[in-house]
Amino acid sequence: MQSTIAAFDATRRGAVRKAMRDRLEGDVEMGRKTKHLFRRARGFRKDADGSASIEFVLWMPVFMFILMLTIDASILFMSQSNYWSISRDTARLVSRHAITEEQAKTYAEAAAVNKFASPTASVTKNGQTVTVVLTSPASQLTVFNLFSFATPYQVEASTTQALEPI
Questions:
Q1: CB 128, CB 96: distance < 8 Å
Q2: Helix ranges, 96-144 (H)
């Protein structure tokens, strides 16, 4: 019985030793694979090929936002400049007595219509001067509406001109 137990222990010890040896050899092999992976990763880290493409993809949304913001701001400034020109022309026509106040209001609103908005015009005559005001909500003028924080903002152009004597 003693010899059977000893034989079993020896067999078990042998099996344990073999398992340990296999595991160590596997660890060594795994260590080689891990070293190889780290070496390749180090190569990727040092290699700069494709980094420009990645940076482009990462920065593209920022550039697009800046471009859209610039387009919206440009349209707002251009619209206000256009409104000034139209209000100046309208005030000049009224000051020369070429058209009446109602005709001037219709003329200014028709001339200032664009793809985005139809502004409202007001023409007031008071003795010596005529004032033409064109207004439109900023939110109606923009393409991308990135200025939604400025929703109550009105794009306005006002011109006052002296009336010529009759």
A1: no
A2: 101-112, 138-141
Query: What residue has token string 């664009």?
Result: 114
Instruction: Give the position of tokens 């070496």.
Output: 39
Supply the DSSP symbol for 99. S
Q: Express each pLDDT in 10-35 by its tens digit.
A: 666 677 677 666 665 655 566 666 77
Q: Which two tokens stand for residue 160?
A: 């006052």
Mean pLDDT over 77-91 rounds to 97
Between CA 84 and CA 155 the distance in angstroms is: 10
One-letter amino acid at 37 equals L
The residue behind tokens 């990645």 is 54
Cα separation, 67 vs 146, whole angstroms:
11
Report the alpha-carbon distance of residue 131 to residue 128 in Å, rounded.
Answer: 10
CA–CA separation, 79 and 138 (whole Å) = 10
Query: Is residue 99's pLDDT more than 60?
Result: yes
